[in-house]
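Feature request, filed as a ticket because there's no other form

It would be nice if the structure record came with a short human-readable summary line next to the tokens. Right now we just get the raw output. Example of a typical job, pasted below so the devs can see what we mean:
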Amino acid sequence: MKIVSVIVLVSLVVACSGIKDEKPLEPFNEIPTLDELSGQWVSYDTVEMEPSIRNFRGQALANRDLTSFSYLASAPFSGGYHTGTIRINGESPEVDKFRWQPYQIQRHAKQRNLEIMSTNRMVPDQNVILWKIELTNNGSEATDINITQDMIGFMGNYSDKEWQWWYPYPTLDGVTTSRTDNLEFMRKFIGTGTTSTETIAMEFTGAKPVSKKMVLTWPSDKEIMGGNGFST
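Raw output as currently delivered:
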């Protein structure tokens, strides 16, 4: 018993002396920075869902071009289809990689000798989205480029509607709460001018699922911008 008592006493002394030598933690030094919380650049073909921006009030989901967003919502306002693409020399570059950060998203693309990066933020608690577009000429000679940006103001004010997960969404046919594959295919082909695709859908005949070929269509950007009742 005496031997055991001595060992226990020595252990307590060592443990206590170790605690006394420790310096108190500075809580603010343990908080990670926004850059430490940020994601890495991710190739577009490995992304299941594109990054989004939020501001404690609204949201917007990036598309696979450099500037447009879909599912833009900030109650009571809801945006349909997408906000418009940028065109460089008549073409809408497709993103090759994304980066998400707590306060912004970034998109990157290349078009021949041009390297393009866009950055988007939402102003906290306001109905404001900020765009920053950077173009770098990696060629050995100066070049002239033509830049255009569609500004699609396809927005609805639904202060008299119920806002749930299925919030009201404007279309050319009127307001809806459904989310169809048509919009997702529009996002997939954004900037290409394509307005239809053939796909395989599952339908239930009785209790059995049956594969069926379907042609899905969606409006062109020109049709959206020319929609009655909306301004651009």
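Something like this underneath would help us a lot:
Helices lie at 2-21, 34-37, 181-188, 221-225.
Residues 35-225 form one domain.
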